[in-house]
Design brief:
Strand content: 5-15%
CATH architecture of the domain at 65-297: Alpha-Beta Complex
CATH class of the domain at 65-297: Alpha Beta
Distance between the termini: 50 Å
CATH superfamily of the domain at 65-297: Spore Coat Polysaccharide Biosynthesis Protein SpsA, Chain A
Number of helices: 13
Shape: globular
Order of helices and strands: HHHHEHHEHEHEEEEHHEEEHHH
Largest sheet: 7 strands, mixed
Helix content: 25-40%
CATH topology of the domain at 65-297: Spore Coat Polysaccharide Biosynthesis Protein SpsA, Chain A
């Protein structure tokens, strides 16, 4: 049944290569968790002021109101170790045949991934996206943000874009404060294997990379916040506060750019342990490897346009189905010959080719 919190339970490095993004294309980094006060009717400007300017750790009472019901929601979705998987969609991404269907189907078709759907929270940013999510997934959370049209185009780096990307951090901080780990992934991604198997156990934060080289110092790998796992520790909570506060030092920058700028400070001052993730396991259009025996996820980064993302991710998903339909003998015989379908549309969308 649909519940008052806005969720439903049932049985069941391309850099600045684009000037603007369709909302669907910007959603992975821009529209994660636009948490206006939970049905409070407070204005967008008030919420943006409270969330966008530095740490708000002293506003516990306001947080309790702003995140009303979150403490009750998380145990319903969390794993035994208090970890929640989170992604987000809008109406366009949730349409039949669009990214949400691809994302959910990849769990069902992956190896040791189907059970993870029980721990996935899909955050819907508009009512139609929420209703579509309800039809295909048990755990959906509607974020009311009537002051902003979540289905309209959002110019990259516009004021609305920046407000949206920064709001995700205060939500994530609250999840950590409530004692939960989280794995955030963009919805323009397909899953093939359980990604938790390759997160370093000593890291506070494990983050995907656009171009990974083990010969580099860890933080010299270009980090991409399209997929990252964070443990709930005092260090990560302080890291979130520091990250948010750093926005004022880098005016007009989005959250990922600021994170890249302060990553050494987070390690040096707060002793946060940040590790990049190998693209052998966590690939993307920016960089992937033709090794189906190791791949866990592939992300449609370095790609502009919803239809473009859907097209090339569908090709990856089809390649995976063909591969997994082979007998073990056939897989072994063809070892080393496997090639993913080249993501032509995505790479053409940014006018770039990986050497």
């Amino acid at each position: 049944m649909a519940m008052g919190l806005g969720f439903r339970m049932s049985k069941e490095a391309a850099g600045s290569h684009a000037v603007s993004f369709f909302l669907g294309a910007a959603l992975p980094t821009a529209l994660l968790f636009f948490l206006a006060s939970d049905r409070l009717g407070e204005g967008l400007s008030t919420i943006s002021h409270n969330w966008g300017n530095g740490p708000s750790g002293d506003d516990d009472a306001n947080d309790e109101v702003m995140f009303k019901g979150l403490a009750e929601l998380l145990p319903r979705v969390a794993m035994d170790d208090r970890t929640v998987i989170i992604t987000s969609v809008n109406e366009a991404w949730a349409q039949p045949g669009s990214l949400l269907d691809l994302y959910l189907d990849s769990f069902k078709n992956g190896e040791d991934t189907a059970h993870l759907l029980d721990h996935l929270l899909v955050v819907a940013l508009d009512a139609r996206g929420f209703h579509r999510c309800q039809a295909v997934h048990p755990y959906c959370y509607l974020l009311n943000a009537t002051s902003v049209d979540m289905s309209s185009a959002k110019p990259f780096m516009s004021p609305d874009y920046l407000e949206l990307v920064w709001t995700k951090l205060v939500f994530q901080q609250r999840v950590l404060e409530l004692g939960y780990n989280f794995l955030f992934t963009d919805c323009d991604m397909v899953w093939f294997r359980n990604p938790f198997r390759h997160f370093p156990v000593y890291a506070d934060m494990s983050c995907s990379s656009d171009d990974f080289k083990p010969s580099r110092a860890p933080l010299d790998n270009p980090l991409n916040t399209g997929l990252y796992y964070m443990k709930t520790t005092n260090r990560t909570i302080e890291m979130m506060k520091y990250w948010r506060a750093a926005r004022e030092r880098f005016p007009g920058q989005h959250d990922q750019a600021v994170f890249v700028n302060i990553r050494h400070e987070l390690v040096g001052k707060l002793q946060v342990r940040i590790e990049p993730l190998d693209t052998v396991y966590y690939g993307g259009i920016c960089e992937y490897h033709d090794d189906p025996e190791k791949v866990c996820t592939i992300h449609a980064d370095c790609c502009v346009g919803l239809d473009t993302k859907v097209h090339d991710l569908m090709a990856f998903a089809a390649d995976w189905k063909n591969y997994t339909s082979l007998t073990p003998e056939a897989r072994q015989k063809g070892k080393g010959a496997f090639k993913w379908t080249y993501p032509t549309r995505c790479r053409d969308s940014i006018g770039w080719r990986k050497p």
